Amino acid sequence: MMRWLVLLAIVLVGLVIASLALGDIALSWQDLWKTLIGSQDASLQNAMIVYDLRLPRVLLAVLVGAALASAGTITLAIMRNPLAEPGVLGINSGAAAAVMAVIVLLQDPPVLLLPAAGFLGAATMAAAVYLLSWRAGTSSLRIILIGIGLGALASAATTFLSAFGEIGDVQRAMIWLAGSVYDADMAKVRFLLLWLIVPLALAWMAARELDLIRLGDDAAKSFGQPVDWIRGLMIVLCTLISGAAVATAGLIGFVGLVAPHVAGRLVGPSHARIFPVAALCGAILLVAADLLGRLVIAPIQLPAGIVTGLIGAPFFASLLWKRRYARG
User: Fold this and answer.
1) Cα 256 from Cα 260, distance rounded (Å)
2) CATH number for the domain including 129?
3) Which of 11, 34, 108, 236 could cross-link to 39 by cystine, CB 3.0-4.6 Å?
4) What is the pTM for the complete model shown?
5) Residue 30 phi, psi dihedral angles, 5° rounding
6) What pLDDT, in 10s, does the model give residues 139-191?
7) Using the 8-state DSSP alphabet, how is residue 268 labeled?
């Protein structure tokens, strides 16, 4: 595993450096190095570009990518479905409906209200999915089916609000829904980092429980695992992790699906190995998506969520094809 961790860390560092150097105003490697070390020869303009604009953006992309990948790892384990991602729990649809409601129904809502509404909507939807799926216990199939149903209902509410809202408000909401880290600042980076420390640590510590629950409810119970309690705890951790990422950066799809699958292929089925590798894969994917979004049709910037969708859709299709082929 260490070999892959080192290799992925090198790739991530390379992407971070490229993200700091490239953009509307490209910096040479010499200018970037002088700026990073605080040389007296570094210009104030370069320092502002690196420290005020690009560094918070790339750090936020690293944190959001790692968070979505970790939440996706949890979801794949507790749902036992290779096509599952945090959106199955209603996190994305709940956040989207809440943010659309705030933007459309309130006049000039405070900036901080949007991420708060997004997290509250995600948490509310995840709680509703879990409670409605309870029937003398829970099952992954009921959670998936109810999550799909409530997600469709929340998506219908989002569409309804967008149809009757002011054009300017709807456009603002759609920008948020596209998913991006373009408005990053160090305050967001610090807040998200502090928020994620505890739930990510707890999820990693629960790696053995995820290994057991992935075997099936009956098998896990035979080893003495309280399956319903563990599944509920994992959903709470997934909501805390993914909900915070969605509230910070909007809806960025497929990172929570692609990164855990890639990590599983690299280091095997053990979640103690998958978590760190998946976090690095998610960070790499989102930093690369943000960088491509800035460069492909510059000076126009594509939201990172659109780029990850372009990458993730073929991956999702390949999973569907392999699943169909495996079943004959």
Assistant:
1) 7
2) 1.10.3470.10
3) 34
4) 0.88
5) -65, -45
6) 777 888 888 888 888 888 888 888 777 787 777 777 777 788 888 889 889 98
7) -
